[in-house]
TrEMBL record, chain A:
Family: Belongs to the ABC transporter superfamily.
The organism's place on the tree of life at top rank: Bacteria
Name of the featured protein: ABC transporter ATP-binding protein
One Pfam family hit: ABC_tran
ABC transporter domain: residues covered: 2-227
Automatic annotation (TrEMBL), chain B:
Organism: Streptomyces finlayi
Keywords: Membrane, Transmembrane, Transmembrane helix
Highest taxon in the source lineage: Bacteria
One Pfam entry name: ABC2_membrane_4
PANTHER family noted in UniProt: INTEGRAL MEMBRANE PROTEIN-RELATED, MEMBRANE PROTEIN
Transmembrane intervals: 21-41, 61-82, 103-130, 150-172, 179-196, 230-251
Secretion signal span: none
Protein's name in the database: ABC transporter
Length: 316, 256
């Protein structure tokens, strides 16, 4: 269990993390979501006491990270797979970490085996591919057989097989009752792995919700209609008591009515349809909607009204 | 977390990278090799001296003439032991494993210091005997007054140079920056300041100028230093302690 209370971090003028309060519970995968620069990595560094909070605190099973005896046996973290001395062999890298926390050396061989690096254990990690480096970082996180695991964008730059492997690993760790906290800026990725979501933007908490709730609220299904007789179509739908939304480039959107019913209605009134298609709003869109107000680095700036999505987040 | 665990871990770290081997090997080769060459050349020079001048020759110190170059390898050793943690990003992995930063830093410096001392001790004795062999009839004996102290002091000097470098690298958190500052200090600034009469009074308090005094057996004719061998060495200890203390404060208070 990780408890974050009133956590803030200021770098000079920049408030990177702004009064975050949330908990990460055991037995599930908690996704930590936010656009680039939202403060995910900063929050995770503060969890490990690498960066000192400007305000607030983090508790790991009720204790400060610094006060944990042999912290690798409580928390295993992969924050940056490149955070190691490339001149040291994979085996020696893990060995020095194990020794510092009183973990038996035999455990090094075990985790190398788990991540599939046994064959290159004696090789210097400098020559490792991105995927191998990531696996070595994960081996380091698993080393102390900790109850809490933390991964900062673990799938970044991995091939589909590697992504698949990490996804299953996180799920199985959670299934064993461990606390798994994983950051990402891809909603689609989280939809596949996370049971719970913590969403932040510009350092602030935007949502703290179960994945199921998020999907229920946000996976809106609707029907898109296009017709050369748009005005008449609209009138017809209106008379039938159906709410229509005019979307861009001459399309209409209808919520909560089956496409069959709409097609038949149009046929009855002899209306020509150029399109009649059931649509599913993606979670990615919902996520973008949610964070739109707080995206720092817009490709093209068109800030929509963020915060629109009512969530349980904000002030717990 | 027991300190013994952290020491053990730092020992694994230091012996599992190549830079440890090549820097310490270079420290040995430079100190012994250059000391030998200069001793050979000095033998010729000594044989042309008159009796009055011969009073002031210091065969022990002469054999340690390679220290000036050997210490640069020791500086590189000290800088890399600490600085590589920062340049590689390993520091964040290390501090996540050992969040008590004092325990981390002092274990690291402690292990590196012991290793540096072991190498420096061997280097010092080899340097002395090889140098004396080259000096022929001008040679000093290890049993002569002050000689053992000087040879032992030579090892302590080399060790403290490495400790000083470790402290500076902890303050600056970058091996390149540390070398960029330490190399000119020891290679240019100290010799230049020490070589000019007007600035010698200040230069004699620099770590290397004060520290090398411990390798002196015969006091030079025009010696102005207000301290003896151990006094000079004490100044150097103070420099190294100051650097490590500042490094510790930086590590303790800054984000990793
Ligand atoms: N050491 C630092 N010094 C100054 N500013 C920093 C530092 N670390 C992070 N920041 C700033 O804090 C903000 C949050 O950064 P952080 O890396 O935590 O975001 P993130 O959510 O991990 O983003 P990404 O998805 O790109 O990894 C950014 O604006 C960043 O520029
Ligand atoms: Mg990040």
């Amino acid at each position: 269990m990780i408890e974050v209370a009133g956590l803030s971090k200021r770098y000079g003028q920049k408030l990177a993390v702004d009064d975050l309060t949330f908990q990460v519970r055991p037995g599930i995968v908690t996704g930590f979501l936010g656009p680039n620069g939202a403060g995910k990595s900063t929050t995770m560094r503060m969890m490990l006491d690498l960066d000192r909070p400007t305000a607030g605190a983090v508790r790991i099973d009720g204790k400060r990270y610094t006060d944990l005896k042999d912290p690798l046996t409580y928390v295993g973290a992969l924050l940056d797979a490149k955070a190691l001395h490339g001149g040291r062999s994979a085996y020696n890298h893990l060995l020095c970490l194990a020794q510092s926390n009183g973990i038996p050396a035999s455990r090094v061989g075990e985790v190398l085996d788990t991540v599939g690096l046994t064959a290159v254990a004696k090789k210097r990690s400098k020559g490792f591919s991105l995927g191998m480096g990531q696996r070595l970082g994960i081996a380091g996180a698993l080393l102390g057989d900790p109850q809490i695991l933390m991964f900062d964008e673990p799938v970044n730059g991995l091939d589909p097989e590697g992504i698949h492997w990490i996804r299953n690993l996180m799920k199985s760790l959670a299934a064993q009752g461990r606390t798994v906290f994983v950051s990402s800026h891809l909603m689609s990725e989280m939809a596949l792995t996370a049971d719970h979501l913590v969403v932040i933007g510009q350092g602030r908490l935007l949502a703290d919700t179960s994945m199921a709730d998020f999907i229920r609220t946000n996976s809106r299904s609707y029907v898109r209609l296009r017709s050369p007789q748009q005005e008449r179509l609209r009138d017809v739908l209106h008379q039938a008591g159906i709410t229509v939304v005019t979307a861009g480039n001459g399309t209409l959107e209808v919520d909560g009515v089956a496409s069959e019913q709409l097609g038949e209605l149009a046929a009855q009134h002899q209306l020509v349809l150029h399109e009649l298609s059931p649509q599913q709003a993606s979670l990615e869109e919902a996520f973008m909607q949610l964070t739109a107000g707080s995206v720092e680095y817009h490709a093209h700036s068109e800030p929509a009204s963020g915060q629109g999505w009512g969530s349980t987040g904000g002030e717990n | 977390m027991a300190v013994a665990q952290v020491l053990n871990s730092e020992w694994t770290k230091i012996k599992s990278v190549r830079s440890t081997v090549w820097t310490l090997t270079m420290a040995f080769v430079f100190t012994v090799g250059l000391g030998f060459l200069i001793s050979l050349l000095s033998k010729d020079q000594f044989s042309k001296m008159n009796a009055r001048e011969l009073q002031f020759i210091d065969p022990t110190l002469t054999s340690f003439a390679g220290t000036g170059l050997g210490q640069l390898a020791m500086i590189v050793f000290g800088v890399l032991v600490v600085g590589n943690e920062y340049s590689t990003g390993m520091i964040r992995t290390s501090l996540a494993a050992v969040p008590r930063r004092g325990a981390f830093l002092f274990s690291k410096i402690g292990i590196a210091t012991l290793l540096a001392f072991a190498v420096a001790l061997v280097t010092s004795f080899v340097t002395f005997f090889v140098g004396q062999a080259a000096l022929g009839r001008f040679k000093a004996s290890i049993g002569d007054p002050g000689v053992l102290r000087a040879v032992f002091g030579g090892a302590l000097y080399m060790t403290l140079i490495a400790v000083f470098a470790m402290g500076v690298a902890t303050i600056l958190r970058s091996p390149m920056l540390s070398l960029g500052i330490l190399m000119p200090i020891f290679f240019l600034i100290a010799p230049i300041l020490g070589g000019v009469e007007a600035t010698r009074k200040i230069a004699q308090y620099l770590p290397d100028q004060a520290g090398t005094k411990v390798m002196q057996v015969v006091t030079p004719e025009n010696d102005v230093a207000p301290y003896g061998p151990w006094g000079g060495f004490g100044i150097m200890v103070a420099w190294a302690a100051l650097a490590v203390l500042c490094g510790w404060l930086v590590l303790k208070n800054r984000d990793a």
